[in-house]
Structure prediction request, 172 residues.
Amino acid sequence: METLPREMVMKAVGSVLAEGYEGPQDPRGTWFVNNAPDAGFLATLDALPAEDASRAPGAGRGTVAGHAGHLRFSLEVSRRWVQGDRGPFEWDRSWAVREVDDASWAELRAGVREAYEAFRRALDEAAELDFLRLAGAIGAVAHAAYHLGAVRQMVLELRGASTPAGAAAERG
Prediction:
């Protein structure tokens, strides 16, 4: 059985993770986001005012601020997981944020960015790459992709572009 070098595996995981949070490294080719430079989670959050981030697109639905708080928490858990901490983790509190004002929205966005950067450092510094660490890193990529898609759809709804034509424009 052929094995891949740790560096290659982590470079691939890091590249796909970076695309989800930072946007495409090269807009001529992407792994899963559209090719707009602001297609990543961080730029998507930065483009949204606190008022919109606090507004649910429908009754009983979550908010973009809620998704951001959840992802900040999940990135912290992912970092701890890669460092060998297996919890328990209080996932219920990951959805505690629902509404934000300008100051707390700026703080939350900075917190997501810091948690993302800390997770990336933990991946880079992991001396050992066992099954659980790798599965956790891949899970973090899938989790980011899911929430990025959910948030980008919420933004379309909040801006009134939930029609198929608006969705087509969003895909670029």
